[in-house]
Design brief:
The protein is built from eight helices and nine strands. With about 280 residues, the protein is of the alpha+beta class. Helices cover about 25% and strands about 20% of the residues. It is globular, with a radius of gyration of 22 Å.
């Protein structure tokens, strides 16, 4: 009797396995202006606009890659999004990329073209360099990225959701520099770089959707405890200063941030040290 019971449990497990596998099938949630839609991997692979694309220099893999992908414009067709708004790409590891709607859905002729790459279940992508996982199941990639100065953190991977939001400047006034600064002040350029490259995992003055890394102004700003040369080096290559097993920041190579651009980010941080928001 005991053997029969065990066999029954085993057979029930086999019957339930397909349902469990379906439940684990990755899905992409799209939330636009309060309306939600959910797509399975197969939904996206069968999308009428899906196509095979070649990315000559993938920002995350550092080499040429081929993907089955859906143009972002086709994926979000009919969505009510204004050029001044943003799209947040929320990754399963906690990163949140800010993508201007103008860049994604209203590009000029010849500008960079964004696609949602979909990882096939039977043909998984390779692991990302230095990681134990691929960029899948969903990953935003770009054709002609240089045409629109697309940055490394605008290639979000492991995406779980895409949602509409107000622009970071409108949504989080605590990110703002002193309004008395001239329009062409380099600190404003540093702010723009911070929003694109740093807000993906940090907050500042409590502003931002991600919380992977620490807030960079509260309680202390890194310019208050780092020498400037050391901070520059830390942004470029964190492991060259210190390393620990749970370290997640990979740093920025010169293609992602030039030395001058790192200095602009530091100038913005130094400025914001004098503009702490009270909680």
């Amino acid at each position: 009797m005991q053997g029969i019971a065990r066999l029954t449990v085993f057979l029930l497990g086999l019957l339930l396995l397909p349902a469990a596998a379906r439940a684990a099938e990755p899905r992409l949630l799209i939330e636009i202006d309060g309306a939600s839609r959910s797509f399975s991997r197969e939904d996206l692979l069968r999308h009428p606009a899906a196509a095979d694309i070649d990315v000559p220099q993938d920002a995350s893999y550092g080499r040429a890659m081929r993907y089955r992908a859906v143009p972002m414009a086709a994926l979000l067709a009919g969505a009510r999004l204004l050029p001044g708004q943003a799209l947040e790409a929320v990754s399963s590891d906690g990163f949140v990329a800010q993508l201007p709607v103008q860049l994604v859905l209203h590009p000029a002729a010849g500008a960079a073209a964004p696609y949602l790459a979909v990882e096939p279940a039977g043909a998984p992508w390779p692991n990302l360099p230095g990681k134990q996982a691929s960029a899948g199941p969903f990953y935003i990639v770009w054709l002609r990225p240089a045409a629109s100065d697309i940055r490394s953190e605008q290639w979000p991977y492991m995406i779980a959701a895409i949602r509409s939001a107000e622009s970071p400047a409108t949504r989080w006034p605590a990110l703002a520099v002193d309004p008395k600064l001239a329009a062409d002040d380099p600190i404003r350029a540093g702010q723009a770089l911070f929003v694109t490259q740093c807000l993906v995992c940090h907050q500042l003055n409590g502003a931002g959707s991600a919380s992977v890394g620490p807030d960079l102004n509260l309680p202390m700003n890194p310019t208050e405890y780092f020498k400037e040369a050391a901070l520059h080096r830390y942004i470029r290559d964190p492991a060259s200063l210190r390393h620990w097993s749970q370290m997640r920041m990979q740093g920025f190579d010169s293609d992602s941030l030039s030395d001058r651009e790192i200095d602009l980010v530091i100038a913005y941080l130094r400025h914001m040290a004098g503009r702490k928001a009270l909680r």
